Amino acid sequence: MSWKTYLEQHQSAHLAQFRDFLAIPSISAQPARSEDVQRAAQWLAARFQQAGFWQSGVLSTAGHPVVYAEHCPYPARPTVLFYGHYDVQPADNPERWNSPPFEPTLVDGRVVARGASDMKGQVMAFLLAAEALIASNSLNLNLKALIEGEEEISSPSLPAFIQQNQERLRCDLIINGDSGQLSETTPLLGLGVRGICALEFDLVGPSHDLHSGTWGGGLQNPLHAMAELVASLHNPDGSVAVKGFYDEVEPLSPTLREWYRQIPWDEAAELKKLGLQEFYGEAGYAHWERTTGRPTLEINGMWGGYTGPGGMTVIPSTAHAKITCRLVPHQNPEKMVALVRAHLEQHLPRGVRLQVRTKEAGAFAFRMSADHPGCVAAREVLAELYGVPPVEVMFGGSVPILATLKQLLGHDPVSFGFGLEDELIHSPNEFFRLSSFEKGKQGYAMLLGRLAQ
Amino acid sequence: MSWKTYLEQHQSAHLAQFRDFLAIPSISAQPARSEDVQRAAQWLAARFQQAGFWQSGVLSTAGHPVVYAEHCPYPARPTVLFYGHYDVQPADNPERWNSPPFEPTLVDGRVVARGASDMKGQVMAFLLAAEALIASNSLNLNLKALIEGEEEISSPSLPAFIQQNQERLRCDLIINGDSGQLSETTPLLGLGVRGICALEFDLVGPSHDLHSGTWGGGLQNPLHAMAELVASLHNPDGSVAVKGFYDEVEPLSPTLREWYRQIPWDEAAELKKLGLQEFYGEAGYAHWERTTGRPTLEINGMWGGYTGPGGMTVIPSTAHAKITCRLVPHQNPEKMVALVRAHLEQHLPRGVRLQVRTKEAGAFAFRMSADHPGCVAAREVLAELYGVPPVEVMFGGSVPILATLKQLLGHDPVSFGFGLEDELIHSPNEFFRLSSFEKGKQGYAMLLGRLAQ
């Protein structure tokens, strides 16, 4: 039996297993969910074992555990390491979900659930491709899988884990599954991601909330100070106003700008999809340049005072904000946090105190050559699978581990995944297409075949 | 038995009843609490009956009901109408309360509970004073009590109620109990309140939350737009930047400014109490002028994006803010809302849509003459009760009904209440002093005695 036949014959069982995996709310950001994270890891390790991997287990880190599996029957052949993550984003605002986020629901050829597209669907697709190759005796290389549980919180524990397991993780080529295609009909080859750094801050005013009638006009309202301070982070031309923010940024080369211009992009259709009148960003740059080639500073959350129904005439004691910056090559995440902190200190409005928290590890940006053997193989497989060659792009998001994998294991990870950008990742009603699930299984099987040649 | 002896003998029973009243979470702003609001009204009407009022009942309005009680045994003598409210502010953030907000707790001579100071304590004090006068045969005038259930949401239904009940509410003098004293040792005579208007708005960006990696830098982040728009509402000198905001505002007269200067105010002590380094407000004005004599615009709540623990790399679909303005004489609340709305429209940043909501009724400011017979009586009673004459001030807060009472019933309400400004009204751990509760009972009994002369 061929691997293709194997996959066809087990299609409905595989879908049921995917739904079991999705039903585990492995939200890494929320301490209350840590047992669920653990449970997802156990489930996945058992499933790798069942797929025929010779070794599979849940390995401790300083944070959420890593699932590690390996199947290395051929000492003389190359070894491919697959990277992915089994943790998911929070799923707050349950009222905005059409079905509960951890009760995977099939609608119109889609699986709706938190983590379906980002990225349990792709982890399952890889696992099932490997299972099919093993079951059909057509696996002709060695496989290792490193599936972490902290990607959605910037992978704080993984670098140390990799350092402590460098021998075990030795390989010849790395596949990064946390990636996607351009559309159902057009494949995509990712050649890089942006880096990231994060911080949170509070503005602290009076020691307790005050009545805005009795006190209004008499002291700094932390929400006014917050608005002023956050507004100071950007210039009127859309660029970031933090001093030194662009110091290490190399200008986009004419070749790169020309490469960007050739990415297909239907602006009107995208605006319509998002219900927007216009896109907006740094003056002098086009959309793909802004979202993948230039660094940014975004407020991800901002809050203070009364946010419930009706009114409450209060001057709150504190106001809060969360910031992430996306970085391009040469920007050091720690240094960028220091620059933002310095801006906040220097622009702090009168009458409030600043408290900055920087819990999350950052990540450098990552870019790789289009001529890398992994890219060449991926390009060929995608062309065969979709019938058209892949569009080649860089991603605006961050996969913090890419730069770390390269640094610690010595290989550029090849991005090869099947998410699509309309699948509401990080939003309510996240979904994954069943067609992508099928393409994913086939694609990974084909890629592993090609890499064995 | 004198009214004083009556109050002394029933002191502990009265305190127990006060705690029963506080235990009912009559939060007018939260629809889920409307049965509790109803229950508080029933409790209070029954208690007026028990106090000896000839009539007492719960009367419907378009919103939460009014408690109305009257005791008019003397057709030839003057009639005093007492105004108060039995609704309370929300009590969110239960983790910031040292004891549950609706389990009244006695600590160091204080009752800690939502609504203790604002203003169930003062409603009870008036009721018990009336009961003591009736029980001791020393009430020498007619009494009416109008206790509403919507003060904390700006009294939307009361004007219509008063209009429909003008005959029933006819009186010769109005006491407003929603008021306070300067400290435990210094009385206060309030000669006015600021008006108020309120609005809420949303800034709407993309139709759903987006990944801030994939999209960051490529479209307007509603939180950035919110910061910019809110920051535009004030000038660098602390004044409000809304066009026309000060058009109807009369300059403070030299006499009034001199009067303000004589209000006792220990700035260093107040800063210490609030944990602040400095006060801040409109340039060119002193604290009491800023907080009672000048109009203000305050953000009471501002929120959007991810506000939970950890990080979430999101560009939110929407951002939200709640605004109230405090108004001085001649400023029309409806007109002020229109001016703020126009400012928001004119300063709207690119890439977001504006949605404005204006649910709450506003209120004009109210000021009265220090020579009004009610003020003269209150001044004498307070001087006797505290041993020092009252400091005479205007309040920064709003009692929307004052201007309405004057307009509809033809009398300037005399503010006479016993809250103190450190009692954390509208904040967690609100409390009322037992000493104020006692002074309140005596003070109302003495005032009713003086007004009968």
The oligomeric state of the chains shown is: homodimer
Total DSSP helices of chain A: 13
Given this structure, which CATH class of the largest domain in chain A is correct?
Answer: Alpha Beta
Largest contact between chains: A-B, 95 and 95 residues
> Count of DSSP E strands of chain A?
19
Helix and strand topology:
Two copies of one chain form a homodimer.
Chain A: H1 3-9, H2 11-22, H3 34-50, E1 55-59, E2 66-71, E3 79-85, E4 105-107, E5 110-112, H4 116-135, E6 142-148, H5 158-164, E7 173-176, E8 188-190, E9 192-193, E10 195-204, E11 210-211, H6 222-231, H7 254-261, H8 267-274, H9 287-293, E12 296-305, E13 314-315, E14 318-327, H10 333-346, E15 353-357, E16 366-367, H11 373-386, E17 391-393, H12 401-409, E18 414-415, E19 431-433, H13 434-451
Parallel strand pairs in A: 3-6, 3-7, 7-18, 8-17
Antiparallel strand pairs in A: 1-2, 2-6, 4-5, 5-19, 9-16, 10-14, 10-15, 11-13, 12-14
Helix pairs in contact in A: 1-4, 2-4, 4-13, 5-12, 11-13
Describe, in plain words, how this protein is organized in 3D.
The structure is a homodimer of 453-residue chains. The mean pLDDT of chain A is 95. The radius of gyration of chain A is 23 Å and the shape is globular. In chain A, a hairpin with a 2-residue loop joins β4 and β5 (110-112). Chain A is built from 13 helices and 19 strands. Chain A is an alpha+beta fold. Chain A folds into two domains: 3-193 and 365-451, Aminopeptidase, CATH 3.40.630.10; 195-249 and 295-357, Alpha-Beta Plaits (2-Layer Sandwich), CATH 3.30.70. Chain A is 33% helix and 20% strand. In chain A, α2 packs across α4, α4 (116-135) crosses α13 and α5 (158-164) packs parallel to α12 (401-409). The two termini of chain A are 21 Å apart. Chain A has a six-stranded mixed beta sheet with strand order 1-2-6-3-7-18, with helices on one face. At the A-B interface, β11, α6, α9, β12 and β13 of A face β11, α6, α9, β12 and β13 of B. β12 (296-305) of chain A pairs antiparallel with β12 (296-305) of chain B, so a sheet runs across the interface.
